[in-house]
Amino acid sequence: MTTSELEPYRTVGARNPFWILQYDKKGASRSPETLQQVRDAMASGHFTDVVVFAHGWNNDWAAATKRYDHFVDGSVGRFPDDPGRRALLVGIFWPSALLVLPGEREPDLAAGGDGQAAPPADPDSAALEDVAGELPPDDAARVRELAARTTLDASATTELARLLAPVYRSGGPELGEHPEPPEGPVLAASWLSAPPPVEVSAPVTTTDDDDFGTVVTGPRDGPQPAGLRDVLDPRNAIRGASVWLMKDRAGRVGARAVGPLIRHALGESQAKVHLVGHSFGAKVVLSAVATEPLPRTVHSMLLLQPAVNHLCFAEAGDGEPAGGYRVVLDRVGTHVFSTYSPHDKPLTRFFHWALRRDGDRREPLPAPWPDPPSVYAALGGFGPHGADADTQRRVLEPEGTPYRLDPGRTLVALDGTQGITGHGDISGPRTWWALRELMWS
Question: Rounded to two decimals, what is the model's pTM?
């Protein structure tokens, strides 16, 4: 198939082509001909707007395309076409799913296929293989041996922590740091001091269709006894490590894949560029903008329940560095909209436990929402902190209600108490309207 024969995934409205670009876990293109077609379209001068979307955690091909379809139909397709505007829509498909069932693998879109075997059918096995694949062979073999046990005593827990510690330096400098791997005993203490997982007699199901929270086990409701437990379920350690790997992967795809694409759009056209990221997809688009200087500013950014640190935009002060994504505020021309909601259980209850690296420093504490309970708390759970001079706080407005914003404050924290009922509930009239407001600003 030649580049000229390629067609978009679909057309939204009368004349807005929607392309999907596939990347592997290292950020290399798996659809190079489609990528070239998109780059050519960006430079053609035929579009007033370029909108790039990045999906989040645990999305296989079917889930990602279904969500993209629903969101673009709501935000672009359901509004009357403006004769003066034409949008080039680009969805990023990156490997974020731990479990892909037979028949759910992505199709070959001018990619040539990757020849990989289907991943394991058990999500814990999938997480284990993802983590083990990042380790030296001998360490990976020992991790598999330890993970096969029902429980680990203190000595075995410390050994597993030592083996997995290198994974915990990944994920990018959201706190403005380049962390060294934690020491094994410190990481082990972190695991043993966390609240025990919820005990259930049957598999957990959830109506929150982005299953971030079912991968990372979280605390029981109510207070828990202080102190260290004596044994560890190794699956919980593997799941936590897999979250770090997914953060690292999202940052890598953003920096290596989406970043060059965005810089091409900004440098080769005058189109307004808008970025939309959900969950770990927010890390994809943030990393794309933060990694290197841009030819000109991105017009706008919409972060939907972002699974990144709530201090990622923070100013430097009190001996702490600036947030790793603070530079993004200078590289967006209008506003960065960032939603947060108390109904997002994965980001309000689980995220900060999964991302801890130490046992007692910065311990999560009880706090009334939206005060963050930990330095590791999620932006999508508690909103941004540490950047008050740059932040204006609003509610996620219903469709038709204009956002009256201070042009001097780039970051807009949108309280999604009304409109966002869970981590995956990010495609509806209020979020569609938010994107429309950004595009027309």
Answer: 0.85
